[in-house]
Amino acid sequence: MKVLNETEHYEELDKKYIWHPFTQMKEWLQEKAVIITEGKDCFLKDTYGKWYLDGISSLWVNIHGHKKAEIDDAIKAQLSNIAHSTLLGAANIPSIKLAEILIGLTDKSFAGLYPRLSKVFYSDNGSTSVEVALKMAFHYWIHKGENQRHFFVSLKNAYHGDTIGAVSVGGIDIFHSIFGPLLFKTFRAPSPYCYRCEFCKTPLDCSFACLKEIEGIFKKHSNKIAALIVEPIVQGAGGIIVWPDGYLKGVRELCNKYNVLLIADEVATGFGRTGRMFACEHENVVPDIMCLSKGITNGYMPLAATLVTEEIYNAFLGEFKDLKTFFHGHSYTGNPLACAAAIASIDLFDKEDTLKNMKPKISLLQERLKDIADLPNVGDARNKGLMAGIEIVKDKSTKKPYPLKDKVGWKVAYRAREEGVLIRPLGDVIVVMPPLAISIENLNRLMDVIKKAIIAVTNN
Prior knowledge:
single chain, Aspartate Aminotransferase, domain 1, Aspartate Aminotransferase, domain 2, 4-stranded mixed β-sheet, 15 helices, 16 strands, globular
């Protein structure tokens, strides 16, 4: 009988007991597992001692790098007091401090703009922050006496999480269609996916045509619609789809015109990913409800926040007997350890001048993407800030994709892994989303490896 070493032992246990998310387990069982044991700066180490450049920020959550002393210390300090206490009928200091900081951030980002976000509701992750937003929007209109507003508008290629409400407003068939019988009905509008737009040939045309589709829905059904939900500027899991200039502003104007709430899902785009603290800043758009998670704690602890206006909050105020309470909550809502981590992470934006220091990195990324876009099997290479997607196609002239069975995106990721870079594709879109703290040197290395991997896999 073969004696397993420690790494082989954990690989065997993993395959025996764990069901991995978004993973075809039949293939996983046949592959060599990468088991991470340590992180430092923008790198991860596996059980074999091999270090990898973290090219996707451990699924888009890491901002300042791994093993950040300031966040480590903040969690340790909080742990010396208490790890968790409920927010149901009680309060805790870290959640109070963080709420003040979050509202201060939005006040700074949207200074002088209307509406103003003023209240924070905590939950555990991106999906739950969206569930909170959907339920708040629905319930808000009931409190306003408009009981017929049972519907939401969402976009094709949208991803808002994996809980049932979030899936109901999702628009990625490969993820969502199987759950159709479980979902509530939504109105679906096209997204401005300029590379594959079904309406037009230019970004301006794309924006106009897609906004026209939304207005058509609003004209017919606005009195039935509670809210429109969007991922502002960049649709993440849909393929890093970067919107044309002016589209988000047009969405806000339509919501104002037809009296429909706007929910901005900034779970992926918030906390600097697009080069601004919040993606909505790029077009001076303030949503009525904003969802935050992922980078909020630098990936240390699960935490989410749903920010709302005073108008929405006030609609839920009343006497106990009126039953106007927002009947929603989570066991770990406002967890003190997570809030302490978030406070320390947000403090680092000022301490390390994160947004300013991103500018040369964004410029470098754009130059490297232009170079990669010239490859014969790259159809499009797009970015906003340090969020980028490289779309690989079988035929560049027709934009014809590779067959699903070819797994080209994953083959590129596997090739990059051999070179010490961890990335995870979205179909045949190679996602580039390193920690914001990545150095110029390591960003160059990341792009070198990705380019070489694409060439190797596509034989060009």
